[in-house]
Amino acid sequence: MEFNKLAAQYQESLFRTIIPFWTQHSRDTLCGGYFNALTEGGEVFNTDKRIDLQAQQVWAFAWLYQHVDAIPQWLEIARHGADFLLTHGRSTNGRWLAEVDRRGRAVALSRTVVPDCFAAMALAQLYEITEQDDLAVMAQDTIQQVLAERQQQQEEQQQLLDGIRRFKSIREPMMILKALLETRSLFEADWLKETYEAILSEIMDQFLDKRINLLRENSLPEGGFSDSLPGRRLNPGLTFETAGYLLEAAEWSGNRRLTQQAIMMGLQLAELGWDTSQGGGFFQYTDLKDRPSVYSEWDRKLWWVHSEALSLFSRGYVRTRHPECLKWFRRVHEYTWAHFPDTKQKEWFGVLDRKGQPVTTCKATPEKGPYHLIRNLHDTWRALEQCAQSRFLSAGI
User: Fold this and answer.
1) CATH number of 1-26+167-397
2) At what angle do helices 323-339 and 256-273 cross, to 10 degrees?
3) pTM reported for the whole predicted model
4) Residues with Cβ < 8 Å from 135, sequence gap 6 or more?
């Protein structure tokens, strides 16, 4: 593979189509924050604002400023969203909301830890730039409150003997893991180590089926398996995203075994989640035992799933030189670039049908923001550059 050319392709897409779309169209200059519903041309068609998407965009542009290039506009965009979050994003009990209206009035409370985790990530990233102590304190408080409430909920559930089936989703420990990695500089080392190891253990012991290297989306408390529709459902996107965060954790902790485990869980899911009969692409869902699905959108192909796979397999190849990583990167790359980028407008289509046609041409929706593309295109670009550099070095150039 011509790694240099591929790296340039990802870099160019990031800087010429993805970032310009969001810098040009997303900011609400009247009421603050960002619009979360934009047509293919950037026109606003709904003004309610998702708190997790607001925080994701703050994180993305603060991260670009801190780790890519200190462009003043990027910091301005991050501050713009952070001001809105700090003013309107939290409920009276200190937890972050799910959604607000354009002016910041509460629309919906959150039922998950996702807004809290992204808010903590955003504030911690901005703190690295500004060194504003209040940002660090709020990020710390958010993480600690999430963990305390989650522990209380788990203890209460253990006391229930009503026989009702209750599932846990991988999304929750996955997001807490990412939030811990992003805020780790704010916490005392011993507390961080203990908390990180508990979350890592939950993921690896309760969601990963070690016999077949598959990460389940839903598990019963204490990791039990349910031979039911939600119990058998596999989610390629969440698997690739979790594996990607585990690669970050492995690099931070120096855990080589975790690197191998993360890559193998991604490779195993890729084999099951790929559409072999309709031109390729990853299904939104697949069944562990290959049984019929009742989920009407199971065969949709989503932009973020493929961007997570590209990042995982390119980074996995850099770390291990596993040939299957390179094989899957090539396959996902070819499908992705043939179907997702909008060649007429900027940005990518978010959802395709099974045949690879856009289901909607909107570029921002309550489910789609800039987080996945900015992070994953950057990480893939950098990984491909490392591959090219390694190849030159091995050839003695």
Assistant:
1) 1.50.10.10
2) 50
3) 0.96
4) 82, 123, 124, 126, 127
CB atoms within 10 A of CB 140: 17
Q: What is the pLDDT of residues 46-94, one digit of tens each?
A: 999 999 999 999 999 999 999 999 999 999 999 999 999 999 999 988 8
CB 248 within 8 A of CB 182: no
What SS3 state is found at 26? coil
Decide: helix, strand or coil at residue 392: helix
Count of C-beta atoms within a 10 Å radius of residue 167: 16
Residue corresponding to tokens 């030189």: 321
Contact residues for 374 (Cβ-Cβ < 8 A; gap 6+): 14, 18, 19, 60, 63, 64
Going by pLDDT thresholds of 50, 70 and 90, the confidence category of residue 396 is: very low
For CATH 1.50.10.20, list the domain ranges present in the chain. Answer: 28-164
For residue range 167-185, what is the model confidence (pLDDT) as tens digits? 999 999 999 999 999 999 9
Question: For the chain, where do the domains classified as CATH 1.50.10.10 start and end?
Answer: 1-26+167-397
Class of domain 28-164: mainly alpha
